[in-house]
Amino acid sequence: MLQNANDAAAEAGRSGRACFTLTNTALIVADNGTGFGELQIEGICSLGRSPKGPGTSIGHKGLGFKSVGEITDRPQIISEQALFQFDGERVRREILALFGSLPAEQRFPVYAFPFPVLDDDLGADAATVHKLLTDDFSTVIRLPLRESTARETVARHLAENLLPRLLLFLPGIEQLELRGTDADFSATIVRNPEGAAEHVLLEIDAETEAWVPQLIGFLVCGLW
What is the pTM of this model? Predict the structure, then answer.
């Protein structure tokens, strides 16, 4: 999700913002990138295809979004241009209505069948989704937690993996927020060119960190 937000902001040519909100029923991810037009919808509905070009973004194979299946069976995308969702149970139900009985083990290409999203589909999160859209986020992705996915597990993974310092490696994102957990934060990064170098200030809530290119390069080498 963060990778997609970074790429979408770079494509839109604007300072990127990303917000992760965990509610009682869903993980909601918002960004202010290009949103979902015809090309983006085609890419997400076609396994292994994407409008992103190799070398122009962090990801370009169109596969990353499918990882949301770890926590949800019904991902929903609400953007300025389009509102749609995927629902495996609904796909099976509608195909059975058309063709009659099928083998129980029959699998269907769920992401090839987008369905519209209505306010009722957003459940208790409708107000949260609409508030994000009015806060200048262009795309909101809601991932309703499946019954077997504990909210506490998602909160723990967010706290462990969604860290403010990720902004150091995401040139398209300048603001990152986490809401709804015990590890909430709001982080902003400012990159100031100084000759051939760049001085980076990372503000995390009320604290500010200063980073220089040599230290950032050392950290990248350490990670890879």
Answer: 0.84
